[in-house]
């Protein structure tokens, strides 16, 4: 059914369609309306889930780890400080092999306070072991949550998954989306059926103290599952296309890159604007393209290496900053590509719009093969008029 | 109170081979608790001695499912387990959150309060060894006044009274509360069986003597636990329907000194200190008896 939908409404619809068994929520801007939509659907009986009002995000994640260990399909959503507060339990969820799926309406992290969008919260959790998907539009938010359950709950993966939507730019912006029918989703997404779950008929322990004698092997198994998830995601997206007729080119979507002289690598909603700008520049005879990192964890090193080696000049746009090191996505791209000849652009922090004029300057800069880090929308910075 | 039939049930849900220190009070209580609850029980534990005692991976000494998690989230994990069990029609499974005084009175207090507020049908246990014992005896808010710990060296610097978590839980809305002492197994078992039969958030406070932290001969665990109740330091009571009933006599008490002098953590106390503490204890018990 075609509806006008914000990213948050799309995320809540995905939770309903996935038939999440247990939802635990704690409000935070700009995620809050996801929790509100789910609350409303549960109350109206449109969604048959246990709905838990938690007293913090840390507790929301903790409750879902407990519920998932019993064998429930679980859902929550968060942003910013909420995600940071969850950090400990994000790591626990990975070690406990609980395939929780969670949209993150990405936002800056204080202090001082800033409630608006960037990628600092999600990027800062890149070492936790969660699968991380970045979405470009609201349809993709809904679709990716369904795919995320498929991949996360695969018995050879068993890892939690974070579906990132840009705070406000997607979370609160209305777009036209197609909300699939329940029957179609049921055909695509089977019931969660874990190999191991806490059961009084078959008592076992989920956790315990693991000594140096075996810890490395536990970690290695998680690393293996991350590797396995690469192919599982591609398969999940292929199946998704068969059922719903849409796909997103996981893990890296390329747009007009084949003959490009310059490619901008970005993640999230800003890639949509970048595609528009690329079209405009192409009309002026500038051969530019966009590569959108849709899957950030596991990092698509192979795809990025191939792309960078086939294009004369590449730059990376980060909507976050790792102090003392630079743009996180830039550093990952540079490391995967094995070259220092990549431009780094920081823009769109704390809700600052990234309009076409900034992106045009970035594309031109990549074409000129300028290197080093440019704070592309800094007042008084290199690109300021 | 429930009419509980002794002797203890023969079925074992906690096997030998666990990794508690000799003389530790905790496995005694865990074993009795599980005997009283039976096999339809799922337990969750945070960081603490309770995470180590059931065994180091891959050994495991309990015969019920156990879910480990971080330090501060016993209440929240209990809510999540309960929700999933209810969703699958397993309302009869008892959910036990078993956490220490640090994991309950301090770092886990928010999550416990949230779980009680949500009305989570759970049996929350605070096994109270009166300090952060798994990290080697640091002061918690449940450490009694005057006790020596590694962060209150000498003991004299610790002049705060023990945090009354039960009172907080009663205000928070528990449907049942009780203090339990492994030295009184009949009373202990009866309270667990009673709690199991009531839906909603239940809070049990178990005294758990710790030989290494309290500094006593491991053979004296039960003796010290018994003295804690007999001197009035750890009164045994039940709270239900707004009423508190003492389940062991509080009027005829042994001198506090008998309890204190068996423990190295109190050895620095002068006779005057002990007399002062006896006065404070007597006053607090007079107050309790009036409230009953």
Which secondary structure elements does this structure contain, and how are they paired or packed?
The complex is a heterodimer of chains A (385) and B (292).
Chain A: E1 2-5, H1 7-17, E2 22-25, H2 32-43, E3 50-53, H3 57-70, E4 74-75, H4 80-95, E5 101-106, H5 120-123, E6 131-134, H6 138-152, E7 161-166, E8 175-178, H7 182-188, E9 205-206, H8 212-244, E10 252-255, E11 262-266, H9 270-283, E12 288-293, E13 295-297, H10 301-310, E14 313-318, H11 328-337, E15 342-346, H12 356-367, E16 372-375
Parallel strand pairs in A: 2-3, 2-4, 5-7, 6-7, 11-12, 11-14, 14-15, 15-16
Antiparallel strand pairs in A: 1-8, 6-13, 10-12
Helix pairs in contact in A: 1-2, 1-6, 3-4, 6-8, 7-8, 9-12, 10-11
Chain B: H1 26-37, E1 41-45, H2 49-52, E2 66-68, H3 74-87, E3 94-100, H4 101-106, H5 109-117, E4 122-128, H6 165-172, E5 176-180, H7 185-196, E6 201-207, H8 211-214, H9 221-230, E7 237-240, E8 243-246, H10 256-260, H11 271-291
Parallel strand pairs in B: 1-2, 1-3, 3-4, 4-6, 5-6
Antiparallel strand pairs in B: 5-7, 7-8
Describe the structure.
The complex is a heterodimer of chains A (385) and B (292). Chain A has 385 residues and is an alpha/beta fold. Chain A has two domains: 2-244, 3-Layer(aba) Sandwich (Rossmann fold), CATH 3.40.50; 252-375, Rossmann fold (3-Layer(aba) Sandwich). Helices cover 41% and strands 18% of the residues of chain A. Chain A has helices spanning 7-17, 32-43, 57-70, 80-95, 120-123, 138-152, 182-188, 212-244, 270-283, 301-310, 328-337, 356-367; strands spanning 2-5, 22-25, 50-53, 74-75, 101-106, 131-134, 161-166, 175-178, 205-206, 252-255, 262-266, 288-293, 295-297, 313-318, 342-346, 372-375. In chain A, helix 3 (57-70) runs parallel beside helix 4, helix 6 (138-152) packs across helix 8 and helix 7 crosses helix 8. The longest helix of chain A has 33 residues, at 212-244. The longest helix of chain B is centred in the C-terminal third of the chain and has 21 residues, at 271-291. Chain B has a single domain, classed as Rossmann fold (3-Layer(aba) Sandwich), CATH 3.40.50.970. Chain B is built from eleven helices and eight strands. Chain B is of the alpha/beta class. In chain B, helix 1 (26-37) packs across helix 7. Chain A binds chain B through residues 21-22, 24, 49-50, 52-56, 58-60, 62-72, 74, 88-89, 92, 96, 198-200, 203-211, 214, and chain B through 39-42, 44, 51-52, 54-58, 60, 62-70, 72-73, 75-81, 83-88, 93, 110-111, 113-114, 117-118. Strand 9 of chain A pairs parallel with strand 2 (66-68) of chain B.
């Amino acid at each position: 059914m075609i509806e006008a939908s914000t990213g948050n409404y799309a995320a809540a619809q995905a939770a309903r369609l996935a038939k999440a068994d247990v939802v635990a929520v704690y409000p935070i801007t700009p995620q809050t309306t996801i929790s509100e939509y789910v609350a409303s659907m549960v109350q109206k009986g449109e969604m048959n889930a246990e709905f838990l009002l938690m007293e913090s995000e840390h507790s929301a994640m903790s409750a879902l780890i407990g519920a998932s260990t019993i064998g429930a399909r679980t859902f929550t959503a968060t942003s910013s400080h909420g995600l940071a507060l969850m950090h400990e339990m994000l790591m626990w969820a990975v070690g406990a092999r609980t395939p929780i799926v969670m949209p993150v309406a990405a936002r800056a992290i204080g202090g001082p306070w800033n409630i608006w969008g960037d990628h600092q919260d999600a990027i800062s959790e890149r070492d936790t072991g969660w699968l991380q998907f970045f979405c470009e539009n609201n349809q993709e938010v809904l679709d990716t949550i369904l795919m995320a359950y498929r991949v996360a709950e695969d018995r050879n993966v068993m890892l939690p998954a974070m579906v990132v939507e840009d705070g406000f730019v997607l979370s609160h912006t209305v777009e036209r989306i197609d909300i699939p029918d329940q029957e179609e989703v049921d055909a695509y997404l089977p019931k969660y059926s874990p190999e191991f779950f806490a059961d009084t008929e078959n008592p076992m322990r989920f956790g315990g103290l693991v000594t140096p004698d075996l810890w490395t092997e536990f970690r290695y198994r998680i690393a293996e599952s991350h590797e396995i998830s690469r192919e599982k995601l591609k398969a999940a997206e292929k199946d998704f296309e068969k059922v719903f007729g849409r796909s997103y080119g996981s893990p890296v979507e390329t747009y007009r890159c084949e003959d490009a002289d310059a490619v901008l690598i970005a993640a999230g909603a800003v890639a949509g604007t970048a595609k528009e700008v690329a079209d405009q520049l192409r009309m002026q005879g500038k051969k530019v393209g966009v590569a959108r990192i849709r899957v950030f964890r596991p990092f698509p090193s192979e795809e990025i290496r191939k792309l960078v080696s086939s294009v004369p000049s590449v730059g990376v746009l980060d909507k976050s900053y790792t102090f003392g090191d630079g743009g996180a996505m830039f550093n990952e791209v540079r490391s995967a590509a094995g070259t220092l000849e990549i431009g780094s652009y920081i823009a769109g922090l704390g809700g600052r719009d990234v309009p076409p004029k900034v992106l045009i300057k970035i594309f031109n800069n990549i074409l000129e093969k300028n290197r080093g880090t440019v704070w592309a929308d800094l007042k008084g910075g290199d690109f300021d008029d | 109170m429930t009419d509980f039939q002794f002797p203890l049930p023969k079925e074992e849900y906690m096997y030998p081979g666990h990794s508690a220190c000799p003389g530790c009070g905790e496995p005694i209580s865990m074993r009795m608790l599980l005997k009283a609850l039976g096999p339809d029980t799922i337990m969750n534990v945070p960081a603490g001695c309770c995470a180590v005692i059931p065994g180091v991976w891959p050994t495991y000494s309990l015969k019920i499912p156990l879910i480990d998690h971080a330090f501060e989230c016993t209440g929240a994990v209990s809510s999540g387990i309960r929700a999933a069990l209810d969703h699958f029609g397993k309302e009869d499974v008892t959910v036990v959150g078993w956490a220490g005084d640090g994991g309950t009175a301090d770092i886990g207090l928010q999550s416990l309060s949230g779980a009680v507020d949500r009305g989570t049908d759970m049996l929350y246990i605070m096994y109270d060894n009166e300090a952060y014992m798994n990290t080697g005896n640091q002061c918690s808010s449940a450490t009694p006044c005057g006790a020596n710990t590694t962060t209150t060296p000498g003991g004299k610097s610790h002049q705060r009274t023990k945090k009354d978590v039960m009172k907080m839980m009663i205000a928070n809305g528990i449907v049942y509360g009780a203090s339990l002492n492994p030295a009184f197994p009949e009373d202990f078992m009866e309270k667990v069986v009673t709690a199991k039969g009531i839906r909603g958030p239940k809070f049990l406070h178990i005294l758990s003597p710790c030989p290494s932290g309290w500094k006593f001969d491991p053979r004296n665990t039960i003796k010290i636990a018994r003295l804690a109740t007999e001197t009035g330091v750890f009164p045994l009571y039940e709270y239900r329907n707004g009423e508190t009933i003492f389940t062991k006599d509080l009027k005829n008490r042994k001198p506090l000194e008998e309890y204190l002098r068996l423990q190295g953590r109190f050895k620095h106390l002068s006779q005057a200190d002990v007399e002062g503490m006896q006065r404070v204890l007597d006053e607090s018990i007079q107050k309790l008896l009036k409230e009953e």
